[in-house]
Amino acid sequence: MSIAQLRRAGFLACILTAGLLAADSPFVGTWKLNTAKSKLASSGIGQSTVVVEATASGLKSTITGVNAKGEPVNFSYEATLDGKAATVTGSPTVDSTMLTQVNPHHITATGTKDGKTVYSDHRHVSKDGKTMTIERDATSADGQKYHAKLVLDRQ
Prior knowledge:
Layout: H1 3-23, E1 29-33, E2 48-54, E3 58-66, E4 72-80, E5 82-89, E6 96-103, E7 106-113, E8 116-125, E9 131-139, E10 145-154
Antiparallel strand pairs: 1-2, 1-10, 2-3, 3-4, 4-5, 5-6, 6-7, 7-8, 8-9, 9-10
C-alpha cells in the first residue's frame, strides 16, 4: 500500500469516526421547550421545538416555534463540534454559532450577530437522555443582559 493510499484510508477513517460519534450523540433527537420548568427571564424565547440531527461532521439543529411576542421562529444551522463558526440561517438575532463538545453530555455554544457575542450556552443532556438543560448568558435585542435556564424534554 502506498503512502497516498494510507493517507486516504486514514482520512476516511477519521470522517467515518466523526460521523459515528455524532450519530451516538445524546443531543440527537426532537426536543420541546418545557416553559413551566424553564426560567426564560427577558430572553424573548417562547414555545419552541428543536430537532437535532447527526451529520458527517457534527450536528444540524432546526428550531421552530413562536417567540415571546407570538411571532414565528424558524432557523437552523449545521455546526462542527470543534468551536469553528457555522452560519445560522433564518434568525434575525444570530448569524453565527460555534459549538464545542466538552464531553458526550455537555456542549458549549456561542452565538454571534455581526461579530458580537449575543449568547454563551452550557448545554447538558441528562444521563437518562430525557432532558436537555441550557444555561444561557445573553444580551437581548434591546441590549439588556440576562441569564436564562431552558429545559427541553425529549419527544
